[in-house]
Every structure is written in C-alpha cells, then in structure tokens.
Amino acid sequence: MMVSRFGTACAAIALVIGAGPAMAQQQPAQPPASIAHPDQWPVLPMQLKRDPKVEARVESILSKMSIDDKVGQLIQVDIASITPKDLETYKLGSILNGGNSAPNNDEFAPAPEWLKLFDAFYDASVKRSDGRPVVPVIWGTDAVHGANNIVGATLFPHNIGLGAMRDPALIKKIGAVTALETAATGIDWSFAPTVAVVQDDRWGRTYESYSEDPAIVASYAGQMVEGIQGTLGQDFMKPGHVISSVKHFLGDGGTGGHDQGDTRVSETVLRDVHAAGYMTALPVGALTVMPSFSSWNGEKMTGNKSLLTGVLKDRWGFQGFTIGDWNAHGQVPGCTNEDCAPAINAGLDMFMYSGPKWKDLYANTLREAKDGTIPAARLDDAVRRILRVKVIAGTFDAGRPSSRPMSGKFDLLGAPAHRAIARQAVRESLVLLKNNGSVLPVKPGANILVAGRGADDIGQQSGGWSITWQGTGVTNTNFPNGQSIWSGIDQAARAAGGKATLAVDGAYAAKPDVAIVVFGEMPYAEFTGDRPTLEYSPDDKSDLALLKKLKAAGVPTVAVFLSGRPLWVNPEMNAADAFVAAFLPGTEGGGVADVLIARKDGRPANDFHGKLSFSWPKRVDQYVLNKRDPGYDPLFPIGYGLTYADRSTVGRLDETKPKVAAGDQNALFVRGRVAGGARINANGAVVLTRTDRSGQEDSLRLAYKGAGSIAIEQAMPIDLTRESNGQLSLIVDYRVTAAPAGEVTLGIADTAKTVTVPMTGAMTVGDWTTAAVPLRCFADKGIAMDKVTQPFVLASTGALGVDISAIRVGSAPAGPVTCGVK
Predict the structure, then answer these.
(1) Residue 263: strand, helix, or coil
(2) Which of 244, 481, 746, 815 ranks highest by number of CB atoms within 10 Å?
(3) Which residues have C-beta within 8 Å of that of residue 83, sequence separation ≥ 6?
(4) Phi/psi at 342 (nearest 5 deg)?
(5) Residue 357: which pLDDT band, with cuts at 50, 70 and 90?
(6) pLDDT value for 614
(7) Are residues 755 and 748 in contact, defined by beta-carbon separation less than 8 angstroms?
(8) pLDDT confidence of 384, banded at 50, 70, 90?
C-alpha cells in the first residue's frame, strides 16, 4: 500500500499559518533534498520471511566469531588483488572477478580454470584450527547477459533488447539459464539484474536498462530475480541457482548521461520512477542489493543512510545484505578506498575492493570496529545479514565448488536448449522501424549481399561485458558456441533456395537482389560508453557512405543497426529502404535471420515482435525523451514497432544538426585532433610535424633531436578519478621510426607534479603498435587524478623518432594489467 501524505501536509500548513513571525523563525530548517523520508515509501510485501532455524544458526555462528572474523566478512576483494593463500589468514567474506580479472590473468581462460581457482579460494577460506567458526567464501561475478565472462557461454541480448521483447516469462527463463551456466563454473553469485530506469541515452550503461519506462522495468525485475535464484516455495536457491544482486540502488539511470553522476530529482521521482524495479525484485526474495556509484541530489548513494537503512532495510524490510560497487565507498566524503567507516555506518554491509592495499582496508575497519567508530550493533547487523544469505544460499553445506551438483558440467555452457532460448530472445527483441516498399522479408531464392563491419563480428553484436569488460579485443573464435549475423543469414538464404555473399565493404560483381548492411556502435562499457550527443558515429561516416553507395546503385537495402541505445541515425535511415534496430543481440546472430528471411513458400518464418522500450530521437540533441512530458516529440515513440502487416512509409527525415556541446575528454588525440580545450605543446629539441595513417595528416610525427618532451595540455584541469578507479589506462597508438638514443618515459602531470613510467624498452623500430599504462599506476605514485593538467607527456633524454596516431583513456587490451608499458 502507498502511505498517504495528505494529512501530514495539511497539518504542517496549519502550523505555519497559526504561527506568528517569531514562531516561524523557530521552525526547524528543511532537511537536505538528499535525505529520504521512509514513511513516504510503500511497505513491500516481502515473501521471504525469517526462518527461525536459519536465524538460530546465524546467531550461533555469530556468537562464536571474533571481531577479526566479523570484519573479514565485510570485505570482498578482486581476484586480481588477492591469492588463495591470503584467505588462510584473512577470513574475508567474498571474492569477485572484476571486468578485467580472470584466472591466471587470462580473460580467455577455459571454464575448468575458473572452477579450479574457486576451489583454491574456498579451501583456504575454510582452513582454520583455532576453533572459531568456518565461514566459506562466496564468489561474485557480473553475469549480466549470460555467464558472459566464460568462453563458450550463451550470451543473451543486453537488457535494452530484452525490454523490447515485452516478454516477462522469457526473462525468467533467461535468468535461469544464466544461473545454470554460472553455476557450472562453481561461481555462486551474480551481480544482476540491473534495474536502472535510464532517462538520458548518452549514458554508456543505457544498454543495461530494460527501459526508460518504470512499468517495463518493474515487469521484468522480479522475473529475472526468480530466474536467477529460483522461486520461493519451489526451487529457491536449489542447485543450479545463484545469489542475485539488484543494482544499482538508487537512481543510477537519472545522472544526466554521466557515469557515476548525480541524479537531481525529487524524492517522489526517485521513488516512483527509479525504484520501480526494486518494488518487484525485493518481494520475491532478492538476497543482495548493490548501492550505486552515483549520487542523489549531491550525496553519494553508498553513504546515504536514509535510503540504505531507512528505506531499504527498515521500511522495506530487506533481510539480505548490501554489497558496494567497485571501490565506490572511496568516493563517500571523508573516505578513501582503504578507510570508510561512514559507508558501513550508513548501511553498507560489504565493501567491494580492488587494488593492492586491501589489507589496509581490513586493518582500518578492524581498528574502527574496536574503537567504536563502527558501533558493535552495526557490525553485528552487517555480519548477521551476510551470514543469513550464506545460510539461505546453502554456502555452509554445499562443500567445495567442484563438488556441487552442477559444477563441472561444462556442456551446459552454450547448450542447445540454452541457445534456443537466446535465439528466441533475439527474434523477439528486433524492432522494425522502417520497411518502405516492403523490402522485408527478403524473398526466397534471393541473391543477398551481406555487408557492413558488424555482419561477421560476434563481439560487436554482443557489445560490452562479453568475455572482456569492454567487449573489446575478442574475435569470433572466442565465441565457440556463437553465430554471427552473417552466418545466420547465409544458412537462412540457402534454406530458402537463394544465396548470400559476404562483402564487408559492399563490393559485388553481379548486382544483388537485396543488400543487408550490419553496422553500429563498437563495444563499450561504463566510462568509455558515455557520449556527448546522440549522433551515431560523428567522426566516421563510412557506414553512411556504404548505404549511400548501394542506394545510388539501385540496390534495395536493409540496415541492421547494432547499438546500446537509440541514436540519431536520420541520414542512415534515409539511405536505407528498411531499418531494423537490433540493439545488442548477443551470440545468437541466427535469430536476426529468422525474422529477415522468408521461407521457401514466401511467408515470413517469424514476424517482428519487438516494440521500442526507449523513445527514438528525432534530433541529435534529444537526450531525454519522456512520454510523461507535455513536449514529448520523438521520431518513434516508446512502444513503436512495425510488423509485416503494417504498410506505413517513413518519409525523408531531417538531416540538419543543431549545434550542441560535444566533446570527449578521454579521446585525448583522435583522428588528428585533440579533445576540446586542449593543445599539443612541444618542449626542448623536438620537431613536430604531421603524417598519415588512416587519413590525411591524422597522426603526429615527432623527431627528437636531443632531450625534449611533447605533452597534451588542458586549458583547465580535468578529472580522471573515476577512470583511474575503474582501471582504465592511458593508451597510445604509435610507431617508432628511429630508435631512442636516451631514456624514454610516458607520464601524466597534475597541477603540482609529473609521474612517469619507463618506456625505453617498448621503443623498437617497426610497425604500428599500442602501449597501455593503467591510470592507477600514476595515481598510486601521487598524481591528483582530479587535477590532471597534462594527461599525456612523452619525454626522451636523447634522439628519437616516433609517430603517434591516437592517445586516449580507455580499457587496455586483454591480458595482465601491470604498472609498465603493455
């Protein structure tokens, strides 16, 4: 039920009216807008009730734990920062694999290596001889569209595509398959689902949202949790199910398109829009909740007691525990990554930590627990919640990961039945935006040209969080159970008596009957995915040129657009006869062909089913489109989606672009230009000219005649804190033309100092290559990452020749991350 606020408001008004000036001055100040009022939030019908047997077991364990044991349960550490041996001494509550972490530092490690490593961590966690309770460790992973870190797993469409399906029953099946394939590796905890209600499509995590409409998000959230964890009273937390984590609490979708930004909305909007997914996910028994990196009206969610404790735990009665996001506690005022009692006191139950200093976090938290900075009752409450989840999940009784019922059944990864569910999801998620002249479905027997960079690229069609964090650095061979869109079209065309030819550049000898051009965004995840505008590919119009070339040749053309969000594609849509929003369909590219290609009898094998879960922009500056607003004016409204029965025609769209603020500070030097507000400055014996790589004068040519340096200088300091925390790197594409005669260093400068790493050993004359240095290497040596004045400094003490084609902040290539040039 919703608590009425009418009577309370009237009473407050009466008090003010009845008070004289003196009394009015004595009224207490209004609380900050970032303080929630729990009594104004609904009471949720929680189905997971406290079990006396569970509670008795928890209290028995808790009563025998030392304060050292208790503090250990509050900490989760990334496997890249800890070894199994460490858990023999430090009895931590959990480990995780972050976006770039994997067994043996190998993101392509086969599934048995994941299980083997978990066994090692588990064995160390239960090894003790002091008589105190054994509390096994649990492993968390971001299985956000399937068990997406594991080679061979079934990868489903990302959430934005699933939202277009409008099929909650299928969502539950997807959650169950994801849990089963995750459990096959022994891992017992998934950081999913994301229930963000995204309101600004520039955000790089838009594809992790089911919809801009809270009702759609609510219809899915509970179903996904039940798929992952099982249904209460039936198969809840039975073998093959894993712990779910609903994220990111709260308001992560309202940050104005900025990752880790500030959602500035009223409490009513926070409750009625952004909390929608929790209203269905928590009642069905979600066991963990992940507070957001972001803020609400200026206050970091990870430190917001009124929401973490007041609303989530007290008002809603959430019995599980809260798990922080990646070092997010370090952003709470008064905190660092290694010391943050305020977050625990606000209601955070478990830190998520990555970095080499996790023992400092343990020591500081232990000290604060002993001196009362963290009250004993709060410490016990946090540990009690963690133990409760572990008991409910069967952690204490399941034994070694490899001994569990589903563990080691690696044939579950990409199993035919699982792929069939994923393929159905692809079919249902496709949205037909345009079909002028009924070019679709492609007729049987047709000679089909398949073109575009995304046609035969499973990585691109899968997007971010696909084996690697950013979804980059992968090839089709890394998806042994996947199928590209081209492969699916080829099979469907032959089955219908026709043929298909792949030519990425659109070249052909004989004019085809139809062309299917697959193109779109390259993979990305948070940080790198944020965009300044909604214009598709503003700096590279080769996809548009390909569409125009085919149109000019009179070839009927179908555009299949891969994207993590709606984008302004008016020019591309004008150049195509049919336009399909495929979003990020995952590893089952054949699902696209299932809808596009007619059967031998000429009838569609499958009709279009998908309806937009996000409004499609008419203009490049329509970042926020909300059907609740009086000025709602999209190109295609939420809910739009044609079927083969529709005969509507999309007229020519306006291609004019209003001038809008644009710029990406992390694209430091790309396509011959530096980011806005920056300049290139050479010092000492350096001659700077231009040369060509992919385009005319798109690269720098540096000739060091002696000691000197070149730097990118910002007009105003830039803030790279979140990028450093997120393990992004300074990446340079370069070619050495003359071997160094001295020492070469790569560095970053803030307002007070410069920190460098040696680069001489990487300066070998040869072809183009890439260097990547993690930003944390500079931060750990004292660079103030919020005050960076020179994000790139290349210095040499002697002669050197080098060409540079790109300098950017981004995700490093797959492989180990070290503080040296990679």
Answers:
(1) strand
(2) 244
(3) none
(4) -55, -35
(5) very high
(6) 97
(7) yes
(8) very high
The predicted model scores a pTM of 0.87
Give the 3-state secondary structure of residue 669: strand
Please say if 339 is a catalytic residue: no
- DSSP type of residue 755: E
Q: Cα angle vertex 327, ends 147, 793, to 5°? A: 100
Total residues found in the chain within this entry:
822
DSSP string, 108-130: T--HHHHHHHHHHHHHHHT---S
- Token pair recorded at residue 405: 């019922």
Q: Let me know: does 176 contact 227? Beta carbons within 8 Å.
A: yes
**DSSP state, residue 190:** E
**CA 634, 212, 314: angle at the middle one, nearest 5?**
155
Residue 287: asked if its preceding bond is cis (omega within 30°), the reply is no
CB 429 within 8 Å of CB 610: yes
CA distances from residue 363 to 64, 76, 128, 219 in whole angstroms, order as listed: 21, 14, 20, 43
Please return the burial class of 737, using the count of CB atoms within 10 Å of its CB with bins 0-12, 13-18 and 19+: middle
Cβ pair 280, 222 in contact under 8 A:
yes
Do 154 and 177 contact (CB within 8 A), yes or no?
A: yes
Give the integer Cα–Cα distance in Å for 779 and 720: 10
Candidates 597, 612, 605; CA nearest to 162 is 612
Which structure tokens are listed for 447? 């000679």
Determine the Cα–Cα distance for residues 244 and 259; give it in Å rounded to an integer. Answer: 23
C-alpha dihedral sign at 305, 362, 719, 525? negative
Phi, psi of 141 (to 5 degrees): -145, 150
Dihedral of CA 54/59/64/65: which sign? positive
Catalytic position from the list 526, 535, 543, 588: 526
Cα 291–chain centre separation? 15
- Closest listed residue to residue 428, CA positions, set 583, 259, 609: 609
- Ranking 174-188, 629-643, 710-724 by mean pLDDT, the lowest is 710-724
* Of 211, 206, 174, 204, the residue nearest 192 (C-alpha): 174
For every residue of 357-373, DSSP letters joined together read: THHHHHHHHHHHHHTTS
Among 226, 325, 456, 535, the one annotated catalytic: 325
483-522 core/surface letters (b: 16 or more CB in 10 A; e: else): bbbbbbbbbbbeebebebbbebebebeeebbbbbbbbbbb
Considering only residues 623 and 419, tell me which one the structure prediction assigns the higher pLDDT: 419
Does the pLDDT value for residue 173 go beyond 70?
A: yes
Query: Active site includes 325?
Result: yes
Strands 729-738, 800-810: pairing kind: antiparallel
Q: Which two tokens stand for residue 50?
A: 């406290």
Can you give the pLDDT at residue 815?
55
> Residue 382's Cα: distance from chain center in Å?
27
Scanning the structure block, which residue is given the tokens 């249904």? 231
Contacts of 194 (CB under 8 A, 6+ apart): 144, 159, 205, 208, 209, 247, 248
